[in-house]
Amino acid sequence: MEFQMREPILVVGLGGAGCRLATRIKEELGCHSLLISHDPKDLNHESPKILINTNPILNPSAYLIRGVSFGARSSIEERLKPYATIIIMANLAGKSGAALAPVVSQISKEASKNVISFGIMPFKFEKDKIFFSGVSLKRLKANSDCTVIIDNDALLNSNPDLTPDSCNVITNAALMHVISTLKDSSLPSKTNILSTSKDVSDVETSLRDSIKMLYEDTSPDSVKSALLYVIGGNKVPIGTLNSMVSTMSGIFSNDSTRVSVSVTNGEMSKVVLLTSIDGETRFDKYDPLGIVPKENMLDWDELDASVKIDLELEQIE
């Protein structure tokens, strides 16, 4: 199954990084945007916005942000109503993104929208964020027709000389390139992993580094299709492009795995690899209870959340 965009389109940015990317995507696709966050600084853009007001709590937990967001459900539903396709940009390494992604995606699914989501995962050293991001990703995938996972940590593991900020710049650029082609191409439905490389001298080295990044997240046996975006491919010899496709096809043990190439113009040559996954990824292990089937969970339909309740209780001595 292929995911295809239907107009009109709304891109929803959740949290700081999600809001910044949604603003860029709005300009790239010429669509509308909606920004949602608990932090007013994330909403400092000229776009429709919804503030999840957690006052007077200065440092709310992700569970509290999610609980307060239930009060904004009708506002979110109203903003999504005119659109056929909802693009969700969520930084699952941030509190707002991880808290709100399951809420917004669930509202979109219940409204029968065409939902494509992009989830940015935390670095491995951000251990306090791993579990919550894993649970949020699981729910985001369940509510989306197509999910693209961006794992900055895999890029950092493959290139330990990079800084976290450098990883963000590289993967965000790769993400924007994929999104810029959405109106002219289709993506495999379900789960996809985005891989790329740092700036290198040739596309074959970039492909090798992209594959190395992919190996950080899943095994080649689980890959069902692979799409190579060759940026600056108009300057790459045809023989090199054929060799790259042959290399990719030889990696996967399943003969039915489809490998295709999308060549775009660019000043420098680079590969962005988008692979469709049917199987386990390392993100499934972020939640130790992730192996339990959904039908065996008593509370799956209800999102984990904290509710802010102001109680006036007398002090008992």
Describe what this molecule looks like in 3D.
The protein has 317 residues and is an alpha/beta fold. It has a domain at 7-144: Rossmann fold. It is built from 9 helices and 12 strands. The chain has helices spanning 15-29, 62-69, 73-80, 95-110, 127-143, 152-158, 164-180, 203-217, 238-251, and strands spanning 2-3, 9-14, 32-37, 49-51, 85-91, 114-121, 146-151, 187-188, 190-195, 223-231, 258-264, 270-277. The strands form 2 sheets. It has a 10-stranded mixed sheet with strand order 4-3-2-5-6-7-9-12-10-11. Strands 1-8 form a two-stranded antiparallel ribbon. α3 crosses α4 and α4 (95-110) runs parallel beside α5.
Quick synopsis:
With 317 residues, the protein is of the alpha/beta class. The chain contains 9 helices and 12 strands. The protein has a domain at 7-144: 3-Layer(aba) Sandwich (Rossmann fold), CATH 3.40.50.
The coarse overall form would be: globular
- Residue stretches low in confidence (pLDDT < 50, at least 5 long) are none
Briefly note the CATH topology name of one domain.
Answer: Rossmann fold
Residue share in helix? 25-40%
Mean pLDDT: 85
Number of strands: 12
**CATH-assigned homologous superfamily of one domain:** Tubulin/FtsZ, GTPase domain
In terms of quaternary structure, the protein is: single chain
How far is it from the N-terminal to the C-terminal residue, by CA? 65 Å
Most strands sheet: 10 strands, mixed
CATH-scheme architecture of one domain: 3-Layer(aba) Sandwich
What is the tally of helical segments?
9
CA radius of gyration is: 20 Å
Briefly note the structural class of the backbone. Answer: alpha/beta
